[in-house]
Write a structure and sequence with these properties.
ABC transporter involved in vitamin B12 uptake, BtuC; about 70% helix; two-stranded antiparallel ribbon
Length: about 300
Amino acid sequence: MTADQWIALIAGIVGGALRVGAPFLFVSLGECLTEKSGRINLGLEGVLVLSAMASFGGAYLTGSPWLGVLIGASAGALLALLHGLLCSIDRVNDVATGIALMLLGMGLAFYLGKPLIQPQAPQIPAIALGDWSSNAAVRAALQVNALVPVGVVLALLMAWGFARTRFGLLVRLAGDSSSAARALGYSVSGIRIAATTAGGFIAGLGGASLTLFYPGSWNEGISSGQGLIAVALVIFARWSPLRCVGAALLFGGAGAIGPALQSVGIGWGYHLFNTVPYVLTLAILYLSCKPGEVAAGSPGELSSAR
């Protein structure tokens, strides 16, 4: 390859990491908040798909991509709220409920989104990071979703909030020891419902990124399992919002390798490179989740049998 092709390839992977990694970032941050409270939400795949459809539909009907983002995030919060309410009932299992709500969210999205497959909705504006280059491929690759800086700021605020704010400390307390939280007079169910709902809202921003930026359309295969991958990503990030940013970029870059190679004329192995995020997920789960061991940083309530 020529020097220009190498530059375009590297820019494509970096730009792809920012584009493809945006949904991973928001869903992992939402799951991080949920799991910090001691609850796991495997329904985030349904949240992601439903919010993607709602964002696209909202932007299409209102003509405003930002209203679409708000509608999508709100739809994600509502589905997550349902998960939180159901899981607060005695003897209701988080994992089983999450799987059921994943199917519900996807079913609702596929049913309500059928009229939205053909239309085009207004898109979230891009931030041009490649204007310094005269290479058109570099400029095109470095068009970044305007929600990405929001995600980075959100990760910083979450890290600060867990360490410095009353609500953050209560979320960590509920996640590490529900009995201690109850002994201090706090409602563990209320904390977890609030954290799960807020996590769904944040994950909903990831759905908006899918349909209102990249790939920028609505179809029934839009998420490709990114909501489920985000659960492994949170484990990899050791339940740290800041590490979630790096993990999301890693997964985004892995997913961008195939398109970046194709953009410089290398077509062989395209579909093989598309499997990299899934292989990476399996590797992370294998290395992080060993029988009889608790992953470092794991909230105490997640490791207890419930």
